[in-house]
């Protein structure tokens, strides 16, 4: 059990002590770190278990599935996208903020379904292949999911609603102009065209994440509007017929943090509703921990935890629109949690760990790479080997030619970037891993290290690199946007001569960041090199760890998690030279320790 869960439990005691036995408490975010766009369900048939999934954009494996019975302890139990062959095209998607968009998770007739979109923002809006809509099914949420079924549909954020004949009407939010729906056969992908308009929303920007629910003889459409930043909000409309016309609630928006600059939890929206076995309604949705400044200027705000998942209780009186609780770090009230909370309620099945658990991974012989470890795009799986012979209890990394920036900052065209990571799940954390560079790095530019990464245009790396010269590279602002891919789509393997003199090891702190929303002219490149001291370790500042000295700082607002969040992990690259697999190296003793979860704005 991790620090955060401990605090969630202990925070119950003061309340009980003063006699408010009816009160319940939940602590947000329930899925901390990179967990945008949640969709959650309650499945009585599966031992009264709640399941959630979230967006993963270009990360692999994708679409993590979390299970809980108390709504407080969430265990990672599978990844719907777990095999490169399920979606090879993910490796070729161009723009950094493309990839797997908001999924919807549902259970119907013994089948779990995740329906989502592989978005390719590089294609024009008129081209519907920009939105590759896909369906993942499984009969066992703790096991492997089927290969995705592709269907022809416009827009993003699909969500099924089953009518009384068992027909799944799939909503999509289309071209920023409202909600459409059509019947889709979720086992064949067959669509009954055309998609018909349901509701245009209340006029907020970018209507998305629509879900349809039926309650008390009303059909409700739930929507996110205002864009996924400071004006993000939840709106609803209802109709007596599934096909409309829908009429908006007079109280819209029903939930938002906009104008609530007191709240540390901003960008609230993109919710899904579900009801537990006791009849209590809940909303899971997207938020960022950013504080009031975010409302004024989200593009320069500091919220390195990215898009996270909150949970709030919802009152939904008969015949009325639901009444959401505002989002905050600690929510206490006279709502009822589904059952007494405790780690013993965590499902036994499934390979993963609690969503915010620490890592103590030793890559023992016969073990697997843990299911919560992440690669940027589709990995070249033979670049990662657990405990190869002669290097037991290590993870062998075969270097990639591409470094984490890649050659244009935004695509890899199918090439791998050797990087293995996990989500940053805590505001303050410590990550360390042992690296073996002495026997691995031989030639100029060969490099291995650790990085905190949001995407190819936003990451900071601290590595050991062999360099023949430390002349600063002529990296100018915006350069990553200007190098076009070669005609063949691949950079030619360089045959450059070995430079004169043996290269020496340096510690290099390097990285790239953007202040402002994907504005190339605001790209900042940093690069600092220091001769490698004899003994060293690298870690976060301010942890009072005597062994650590501060090399460099980076500002959190240079890692703007536009839609996603950050991961931390290890990389190995030859920085564009010598071909793929130029060297092999071994990492071991992988440790991630969550130190603190900040859930309110500091008042200093
Ligand atoms: C979607 O919107 C874009 C931009 O406004 C427009 O060019 C395009 O024609 C629209 N597509 C459809 C199918 O309506
Ligand atoms: C849409 O994009 C795909 C992929 O680039 C391309 O093959 C196709 O020709 C485009 N279709 C239209 C109508 O432009
Ligand atoms: C989906 O298609 C399959 C195969 O054609 C069919 O057996 C099934 O009944 C269809 N499902 C629905 C809900 O129509
Ligand atoms: C937020 O404040 C602005 C400016 O005062 C106002 O126009 C808007 O309606 C408010 N939005 C909400 C959701 O309260
Ligand atoms: C939620 O916060 C808003 C301010 O943004 C406030 O007007 C509203 O009363 C709050 N709702 C509840 C139920 O506390
Ligand atoms: C919504 O809930 C809040 C907090 O329980 C309550 O003060 C408010 O009156 C409710 N609003 C409606 C419309 O029921
Ligand atoms: C169901 O959940 C309970 C804990 O809530 C656990 O003790 C039990 O083993 C579970 N049963 C199955 C079949 O998973
Ligand atoms: C290096 O960058 C400067 C702009 O900062 C530019 O004027 C110069 O031409 C560049 N040199 C090379 C070799 O690209
Ligand atoms: C890459 O190599 C091919 C064949 O070896 C050659 O035709 C092409 O010009 C090279 N491209 C670049 C950008 O060097
Ligand atoms: C990253 O790799 C590219 C080639 O893919 C290279 O041009 C660039 O210099 C490398 N970055 C560093 C810091 O070495």
From TrEMBL:
<feature type="domain" description="Beta-xylosidase C-terminal Concanavalin A-like">
    <location>
        <begin position="362"/>
        <end position="465"/>
    </location>
</feature>
<keyword id="KW-0378">Hydrolase</keyword>
<feature type="signal peptide">
    <location>
        <begin position="1"/>
        <end position="21"/>
    </location>
</feature>
<dbReference type="GO" id="GO:0004553">
    <property type="term" value="F:hydrolase activity, hydrolyzing O-glycosyl compounds"/>
</dbReference>
<dbReference type="Pfam" id="PF04616">
    <property type="entry name" value="Glyco_hydro_43"/>
</dbReference>
<dbReference type="InterPro" id="IPR006710">
    <property type="entry name" value="Glyco_hydro_43"/>
</dbReference>
<comment type="similarity">
    <text>Belongs to the glycosyl hydrolase 43 family.</text>
</comment>
<dbReference type="InterPro" id="IPR051795">
    <property type="entry name" value="Glycosyl_Hydrlase_43"/>
</dbReference>
<feature type="site" description="Important for catalytic activity, responsible for pKa modulation of the active site Glu and correct orientation of both the proton donor and substrate">
    <location>
        <position position="157"/>
    </location>
</feature>
<dbReference type="InterPro" id="IPR023296">
    <property type="entry name" value="Glyco_hydro_beta-prop_sf"/>
</dbReference>
<protein>
    <submittedName>
        <fullName>Glycoside hydrolase family 43 protein</fullName>
    </submittedName>
</protein>
<keyword id="KW-0326">Glycosidase</keyword>
<dbReference type="InterPro" id="IPR013320">
    <property type="entry name" value="ConA-like_dom_sf"/>
</dbReference>
<keyword id="KW-0732">Signal</keyword>
<dbReference type="Pfam" id="PF17851">
    <property type="entry name" value="GH43_C2"/>
</dbReference>
<dbReference type="InterPro" id="IPR041542">
    <property type="entry name" value="GH43_C2"/>
</dbReference>
<dbReference type="GO" id="GO:0005975">
    <property type="term" value="P:carbohydrate metabolic process"/>
</dbReference>
